[in-house]
Design brief:
With 356 residues, the chain is mostly helical. 49% of the residues lie in helices and 6% in strands. It has 14 helices and six strands. A two-stranded antiparallel ribbon has the order 1-2. Strands 3-4 form a two-stranded antiparallel ribbon. A two-stranded antiparallel ribbon has the order 5-6. Helix 9 (148-157) packs across helix 10 (165-209). The longest helix is centred in the middle third of the chain and has 45 residues, at 165-209.
Length: 356
């Protein structure tokens, strides 16, 4: 493998050295910068610049090349010397090849800022050449080859056309960092879900293959205090965790809830359970007549059952929903009160979005 040349300069006011090896566009740029810095610190006149640095080229081939045409090179400018050096020792059409590389560069999976800096560095090697891109051209090149995931955020950001290339790159950098953060979050969620699914699959396999059977209650864990208090308040069972039942956990005929489908009990569950209990307790009621004969025989006050003039209202605690809500509204409805009309509180009508 061919060794690449490099530029050495112990101090800005010391003449630089170009070590032996292959010349590349990067090395010639460094040689140009080091020589120019030396000229500025030592105030070397333009007519003497080439001869002051030419002997710093330590490669025998470069040294021979200079000696062969030093007369012409010494009387010319340093810029002309650098042009002759590139033409003689860099790869043929290096500038067009590098220009094509810049135009064909795409962001791909690289962070935007790293890719933009690399593209600027490559374009800087073309400075002074016809293939060099100005700031507007380079910005258009970045916009054309940016990754698809950044295209829409950039359009939504509506970045000002008057931004400099540096400011535009900074704005897009922030958008890309936000995109990368979201991507990392999504990957973490997907990874966690994958781990959880593998753990559940392993647990299910282990449970099914075990000769000893376990009830699901052993996996539910102890009751939390709010849920325990709710079950005690509404005549619930600590095992099956149902409300308004007639047994206790020691004599519960049901199995404990399934671990995967179980959700902690809430006040809404008590309302729903109470409603079902009320519905189950209502039996068909015959008509109550003003006077009923209990048994055959002569009429007497003891043989009559007189219906009362007033009876207690039958209230039905129920859950209502409507077009304007995704949850249930707990109300007390009056059952068979004998009214011609169906009366609903206006606040409930508005809250549920019922049509009038």
């Amino acid at each position: 493998m061919t060794k690449t040349a490099r530029v050495e300069q112990p101090a800005p006011n010391k003449p630089p050295k170009l070590t032996a090896g292959e010349l590349t566009p990067e090395v010639t740029r460094d040689w140009d910068n080091a020589c120019t810095t030396y000229f500025m610190h030592k105030n070397i006149e333009a007519a003497n610049q080439v001869k002051m640095v030419a002997f710093g080229m330590q490669d025998p081939q470069l040294h021979t090349w200079y000696l062969a045409q030093c007369t012409a090179l010494d009387v010319g400018t340093f810029k002309e010397y650098m042009t002759a050096l590139k033409d003689a020792w860099l790869e043929k059409h290096w500038d067009m090849k590098l220009h094509k590389k810049v135009l064909g560069s795409h962001q791909g999976n690289h962070p935007f800022y790293e890719w933009a800096l690399e593209l600027q560095n490559q374009n800087a090697l073309l400075y002074g050449e016809m293939a060099h891109l100005d700031d507007t051209q380079l910005r258009n090149q970045l916009k054309a080859n940016i990754c698809d995931e950044l295209t829409v955020p950039i359009l939504r950001a509506n970045l000002a056309n008057g931004l400099t290339l540096k400011d535009w790159i900074e704005e897009v950098k922030h958008l890309d960092e936000k995109h990368l953060e979201d991507l990392a979050t999504h990957k973490k969620i997907a990874k966690d879900l994958y781990k959880a699914s593998k753990h559940n699959a392993y647990t299910n396999k282990t449970t099914s293959s075990s000769s000893k059977t376990y009830t699901s209650s052993s996996h539910l864990g102890p009751l939390m205090e709010p849920e325990r208090a709710l079950l005690m308040k509404h005549r619930g069972c600590f095992k099956c965790r149902k409300f308004y039942i007639s047994h206790q956990s020691k004599e519960c005929p049901d199995r404990a809830p399934d671990t995967l489908a179980y959700k902690p009990r809430t006040e809404m569950d008590t309302i729903a359970a109470k409603s079902k209990k009320t519905i189950a307790a209502v039996a068909p009621v015959g008509a109550v007549m003003p006077s009923t004969v209990i048994e055959e025989g002569p009429d007497s006050e003891d043989d009559l059952c007189i219906a009362p003039f007033e009876t207690a209202h039958l209230l039905w605690p129920c859950l209502l929903t409507g077009p304007s809500t995704d949850s249930f509204e707990h109300v007390d409805a009056l059952i068979d009160h004998g009214s011609h009309l169906v009366l609903i509180d206006e606040n409930i009508v508005n809250k549920l979005g019922l049509h009038r």
